[in-house]
């Protein structure tokens, strides 16, 4: 996209959780709320798992500024709080507003996964509902969203590439390593990888640290954020794993912590995004 037609700018990423996988989600060893993207005066939420809306409010973010809900696949650590955010985006289900984009298994009845994660009632609320497969692309409120290939136990799982014309983010949730996932994800300002396990500890359908190093080699991002940590990763220290990634790839890498904020642009976050708990629309 040409920078002359920038309509919105991704300012900041807020970690509503750095945990993931079944055990960490069940035990809440870390928060499992996914990510919030602060885009000027609206917010996109990605993969909101259990506790997401609670942590969102606890951090003082204004839920009525949510305008996009993006869901990578049909596992509850990625979608459980999505319907609440849709209700927030539509001002308590009172108006047609916002974007709901997700894997087909999240939004449609598909073979092998059964009924969608999101109810018909909630799918009628947003302004745009976009079931996406890898290669699909939409533009909403100045943000271009491409679906990236993933390989997971939900065969419809996707990653997301977001582009505001100035900044780009490539985001992978649960996927196994494959050279194919790099297609369309190359050279982002920030690569967000879900790294469930440390070292070379493989688990089907997920990345370990060694896999992440190979993915980064293929994608050549400017910076890397690792998140979605499982129990073994938490025990091994995500910070140490991030250090190992940085040493091996030469690319600046940071490990997510709950509540972490990462700036993408130099500008400050508009203060009215944060309600201090009032949360009026
Ligand atoms: Zn997961
Ligand atoms: Zn999953």
What features would you describe in this structure?
The chain is an alpha/beta fold and 281 residues long. It has one domain (8-273): Metallo-beta-lactamase, Chain A, CATH 3.60.15.10. 22% of the residues lie in helices and 28% in strands. The chain has 9 helices and 15 strands. Strands 7, 8, 9, 10, 11, 12, 13 and 14 form an 8-stranded mixed β-sheet that branches. α7 runs parallel beside α9. The chain is globular. The model has no long low-confidence stretch (mean pLDDT 93). One zinc ion (ZN) binds at residues 20-21, 75, 77-78, 174, 228.
Short recap of the structure:
This protein has about 280 residues and is an alpha/beta fold.
- What CATH architecture would you give? 4-Layer Sandwich
Task: Spell out the CATH superfamily.
Answer: Ribonuclease Z/Hydroxyacylglutathione hydrolase-like
The global form is: globular
Subunit organisation of the chains: single chain
**Got a strand count?**
15
Number of helical elements: 9
- What amount of the residues lies in strands? 25-35%
Rounded mean pLDDT score = 93
Bound ligands, named by name, code or SMILES: zinc ion
Q: What portion of residues is helical?
A: 10-25%
């Amino acid at each position: 996209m040409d920078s002359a037609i920038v309509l919105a700018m991704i300012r900041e990423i807020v970690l509503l959780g750095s945990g993931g996988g079944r055990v960490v989600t069940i035990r809440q060893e870390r928060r499992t709320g996914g990510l919030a993207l602060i885009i000027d005066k609206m917010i996109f939420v990605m993969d909101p798992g259990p506790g997401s809306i609670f942590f969102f409010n606890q951090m003082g973010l204004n839920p009525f500024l949510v305008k996009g809900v993006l869901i990578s696949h049909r596992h509850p650590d990625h979608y459980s709080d999505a319907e609440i955010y849709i209700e927030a985006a539509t001002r308590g289900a009172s108006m047609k507003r916002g974007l709901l984009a997700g894997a087909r298994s999240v939004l449609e009845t598909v073979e092998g996964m059964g009924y969608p994660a999101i109810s018909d009632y909630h799918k009628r609320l947003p302004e745009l509902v976009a079931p996406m497969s890898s290669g699909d692309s939409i533009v909403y409120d100045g943000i271009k969203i491409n679906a990236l290939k993933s390989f997971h136990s939900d065969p419809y799982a996707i990653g997301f590439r977001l582009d505001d014309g100035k900044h780009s983010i490539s985001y992978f949730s649960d996927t196994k390593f494959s050279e194919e996932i790099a297609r369309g994800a190359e050279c982002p300002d920030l690569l967000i990888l879900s790294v469930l396990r440390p070292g070379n500890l493989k688990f089907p359908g997920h990345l370990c640290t060694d896999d992440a190093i190979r993915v980064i080699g293929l994608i050549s991002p400017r910076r890397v954020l690792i998140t979605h940590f499982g129990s073994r990763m938490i025990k091994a220290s995500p910070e140490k794993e991030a250090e190992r990634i940085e040493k091996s790839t030469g690319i600046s890498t940071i490990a997510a912590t709950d509540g972490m904020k990462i700036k993408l642009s130099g500008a400050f976050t508009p203060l009215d995004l944060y309600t201090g708990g009032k949360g009026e629309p």
